[in-house]
Write a structure and sequence with these properties.
Elements lengths: L1 H39 L1 H106 L5 E8 L4 E8 L11 E5 L5
Antiparallel strand pairs: 1-2, 2-3
Helix pairs in contact: 1-2
Length: 193
């Protein structure tokens, strides 16, 4: 019985050793086969790795180019917006300047018109003064002429009635006094005219 127990235990140890050896050999064999397979497919694997690296690189470059294009478009849009804003400001300033120039021109035209009116009024006033001065001088000469006796003063008074038209004329000699005796009264009928 003891022998039997020893034998069973011995058998278990041997089986375990065989199992471990088998596992070790299988592992070595698998590693060798993998290594051989890898060696065989080394070029293919390297090509695949390179292909995947190139693909990733191409995707990154594409994304980078797309990002750069988006930034460029955004910059162009911002620049266009700035130019449009500047154009609007410039047009607004030009409109204000044009409006100011128009107001200045209107004010200058109005001022010139007012100045012309003032000049015309001054001319009329000057003419009126000249006429008044001439009339004053004429009256003064006439008065001097009458005062010095160089003419006769003659006045006529016209009376209108329904039946007759009478003209009463006074004639005075300047050297005579102003009494009625020194004046001659003439009554002329309508038939005398």
């Amino acid at each position: 019985m003891a022998f039997n127990c020893y034998s069973s235990r011995q058998q278990e140890i041997e089986e375990k050793l065989i199992e471990e050896e088998t596992a070790r050999r299988v592992e070595e064999l698998v590693a060798k086969r993998v290594e051989e397979e890898l060696e065989k497919r080394k070029d293919e694997i390297e090509r695949e790795v390179l292909r995947r690296v190139e693909e990733a690189k191409r995707i990154m470059e594409k994304q980078l180019l797309e990002e750069l294009e988006r930034q460029r478009q955004a910059e162009l849009a911002a620049q266009k917006a700035r130019e449009e804003e500047e154009k609007e400001k410039r047009e607004e300033l030009e409109r204000i300047l044009e409006e100011n120039n128009r107001k200045i021109a209107d004010a200058q035209a109005k001022l010139a018109e007012e100045q012309l009116k003032i000049v015309e009024e001054q001319r009329k006033i000057h003419e009126e003064r000249m006429k008044l001065e001439q009339e004053r001088q004429r009256q003064q000469k006439e008065e001097q002429k009458n005062y010095t006796g160089q003419g006769k003063v003659k006045a006529e008074i016209i009376f209108l009635t329904k039946k007759h038209r009478m003209i009463l004329a006074f004639e005075r000699c300047p050297n005579q006094t102003k009494t009625m005796d020194n004046n001659s009264i003439l009554v002329k009928s309508l038939s005398d005219y």
